[in-house]
Write a structure and sequence with these properties.
By secondary structure, this protein is α/β, with parallel strands linked by helices. The protein has ten helices and ten strands. The strands form two sheets. Strands 3-2-10-9-8-5-6-7 form an eight-stranded mixed sheet, sandwiched between helices.
């Protein structure tokens, strides 16, 4: 099978899904055989990947992790079918130009549905204590940027629990004769300890940040949700409250990422019910100093797990606010086709966040006629 020059010229606008390297190899071979030319890879160098303002190369993973229906078990203990998953949703697959190759034509679906789901994974480990001022100066600008660049989009904003528990519960029940010191935080909300099930679920939206340097109050998200939506009152103020998680807990960025993309946590009745939409852009911002706090798996397997549930690479963008030295999270970013990286030591992160969103919006530019 061979393709015309015109068809080959448009391949970079056709999005390989599920096995991008295999798809790229097939297309490249077909174009080379037919035209005597070498076509660019669809899964690596063509991605919008930058680090501190400079372009870097990136690559996609090829293998699917062995995930089972056990991964679709809700926090209530019942099993749900992963609704809206690109591998099972017939409406989504109807868009396929060639189902055998797993290709999707034109811009990604969120460009027309105008849906964006923002996830903020902000570490609350002691490592980020030196950067609290940088964060606090960025929160308002992040929301201003979202409102400015997505004025007519259906936007969801969730601050994710990367630790998997609520605050320092044990500190609320310390007994002096056991040699346990209470947390050095006068406003610590021990009245809420130990939190409910979702407060202690990794990747669930935070509603009451607790810890040293945290806002330590119920932030007041409307309608019992664990995430904000377009039109919520006091959006900037509420986000600032949610995002101020302090620096006395812990963090596992990779495990939180692998959970947030699974359909079960956004299923009806689950902690983040209604948050993640299959036809949205999932925009994840990671803030971490140093390596990830998890001992499980490795950067390659983290990316494989994320790609398993978020098949179309153009429906995912990851911004990493990371250390200025090599870390496993930086390696993970290299496996995400569309990503951007900032130095956590920068005075604030508003411009870098804006740059990343503008990069994501370029995915909606139409292909040439």
């Amino acid at each position: 099978m061979t393709f015309s020059v015109e068809t080959c010229a448009r391949f970079r606008y056709i999005r390989p899904v599920r096995r991008p390297l295999i798809t790229a190899a097939l297309l490249g071979a077909a174009c080379t055989a037919g035209q005597g030319e070498t076509m660019g890879s669809l899964s690596g160098g063509g991605g919008s990947s930058t680090t501190s303002g400079s372009t870097t190369s990136s690559s996609s993973t090829t293998a699917d992790p062995e995930l089972t229906t056990a991964d679709a078990t809700t926090s209530l203990g019942t099993t749900t079918t992963p609704t809206g998953d690109p591998t099972t949703d017939t409406d989504r697959m109807d868009l396929a130009r060639d189902p055998d190759l797993g290709l999707f034509p034109g811009p990604p679906p969120w460009c027309s549905t105008r849906k964006v789901d923002f996830v903020f994974q902000i570490s609350s480990s002691p490592n980020v204590e030196p950067y609290q001022d940088n964060l606090l100066q960025s929160f308002g600008g992040w929301i201003d940027t979202i409102e400015e660049l997505f004025p007519d989009f259906d936007v969801h904003v969730l601050v994710s629990n990367t630790w998997g528990s609520w605050g320092n519960n044990s500190k609320c029940f310390c007994l002096e004769d056991l040699g346990c010191d209470a947390i050095d935080e006068p406003n610590y909300p021990c009245w809420a300890a130990p939190g409910d099930k979702c407060d202690n679920t990794r990747a669930a939206g935070i509603v009451l940040p607790a810890g040293k340097g945290a806002s330590n109050k119920l932030c007041g998200i409307p309608d019992g949700r664990r995430y904000l939506i377009s039109g919520d009152p006091k959006l900037k103020e509420t986000f600032g409250c949610l995002a101020q998680g302090g620096y006395s807990n812990g963090s596992s960025q990779s495990e939180a990422m692998m959970e947030i993309v699974k359909p079960y946590i956004s299923a009806p009745g689950a902690c983040n019910a209604g948050f993640l939409r299959y036809d949205s852009l999932l925009f994840i911002t990671i803030v971490e100093e140093g390596d990830d706090g998890s001992w499980s798996y490795n950067p390659t397997s983290w990316a494989e797990a994320v790609h398993y549930w978020r098949e179309d690479p153009e429906t995912l963008f990851v911004l990493g606010v990371l250390s200025d030295y090599p870390t496993d999270l930086e390696e993970f970013l290299g496996y995400i086709e569309h990503h951007h990286q900032l130095d956590i030591g920068e005075p604030n992160y508003v411009q870098g966040f804006t740059d990343a969103i503008e990069m994501a919006l370029k995915l909606c530019e139409p292909p040439p006629k």
